[in-house]
Amino acid sequence: MQDELGREALRLTVNGAQVTVPAARATPLLYVLRNDLRLNGPKFGCGLGECGACTVLLDGRAARSCVVSAGAVEGRAVTTLEGLGSSAAPHPVQQAFIAEQAAQCGYCVNGMIVTAVALLRRVPHPTEAEIREALRYNLCRCGAHVEILRAVQRSVVLAA
Q1: Model pTM?
Q2: Which residues pair with 55 in a beta bridge?
Q3: Does residue 64 have a pLDDT over 90?
């Protein structure tokens, strides 16, 4: 049933928790995550799915939340940066990014970390070429590419 604004009560699983949000099914998932659920990990970058700042895990695979509708994720598991770890217990990839100081402005780092986590779930010991290929569609305008690459390589060691 829709309200006067065309919104439905969408039932989503975000970071392991069941949530219900009022949203039109076509609303970009990014807007629901940031505006309704107050999760600030995914960033609005381009709005076209090209920069990677909004990347989340959707059933364990990297997905651009700016081009995925909220209605399309009902019954699926959505994991944001906040769902990977905490400041007290960071995920190994988060820990590696901190250790390598792999962020300058920090805008792209969410997408880089989430994409790296998806890669490491598929390929536990990737080569440098595989890491570069996985991250090639995540844009970093600050030029922290060398540190980001080292952080993903370090996370392989930390996760082992």
Answers
A1: 0.90
A2: 64
A3: yes
